Amino acid sequence: MMGWIILLLFVLICAGALIKLGKLSRGTYEITAAALLLGVAGYAWQGHPGMAGVSVVPIEKPNSFDDDMIDARNEMGERFGTAQEWLIFSDSLNRAKKHGAAANYLRNGVREHPDDPDLWVGLGNALVVHADGVITPAAQFAFQKAADLSPEHPGPPFFLGLAYAQSGKIDQARAIWTELLARSSEDAPWREDLESRLATMEKIQPSLPVTPESPAEQ
Question: What is residue 52's predicted lDDT score, i.e. its pLDDT?
Fold first, then answer.
């Protein structure tokens, strides 16, 4: 109902502006009115003025850098070694709100150690944090590079899904996390957290049911 009210108000404003500012003669009133009504009819045919608006709200908080993210990263990657040294210093920069410096630091890390998937995952996370939770092409590349280096590594799909969820791209996040859950062992340390995130996602934005194909389409 509200959609129709807004539409009618918009039509009246347009009509008044055309008549007053356009200085239309009385002979053109009917043509103007017909054009506006034609637009209304087209909207009523193609649009859905009575449908409630849908707000795309990120499932995850926009800036994901916190201790929970670090714990999740540690569960899915190496706790010691070269990558961890780089990641710890990057974390300190992020805590100081120096997100750009943290991302640049890890860029240097992957230049020195291009075959380390944990560093690429860390770079992807740093780039998402630097972009206030928005997944950028550079972050996507970093996660994909990590996945290419270590296809069984849970970090790339988990944090890629997290970035999609932060960006409001729920279907993409759900698909990635569902696939990761399917290939995770029952005793995987990240499994409970992943199941909880998927359950929350389903409550907020349920997945659409799959419509069976008709015999003609099969």
Answer: 43
Within 8 A by CB and 6+ apart from 140, the residues are 124, 160
The residues, any chain, with a CB within 8 Å of residue 135's CB and separated by 6 or more, are: 128, 160, 163, 164, 166, 167, 169
SS3 for 126-181 is HHHHHCCCCCCHHHHHHHHHHHHHCCCCCHHHHHHHHHHHHCCCHHHHHHHHHHHH
State pLDDT tens for residues 141-160: 999 999 999 999 999 999 99
pLDDT for the residue numbered 145: 96
Report which of 11, 16, 5 is spatially closest to residue 40, judged by C-alpha positions: 11
Instruction: Round the average pLDDT of the chain to a whole number and report it.
Output: 76
Q: What is the pLDDT of residue 32?
A: 58
Q: How far apart are CA 74 and CA 11, in angstroms?
A: 58
Torsion of CA 48, 52, 53, 55, to 10 degrees: -140
Q: Which amino acid is at 30?
A: E
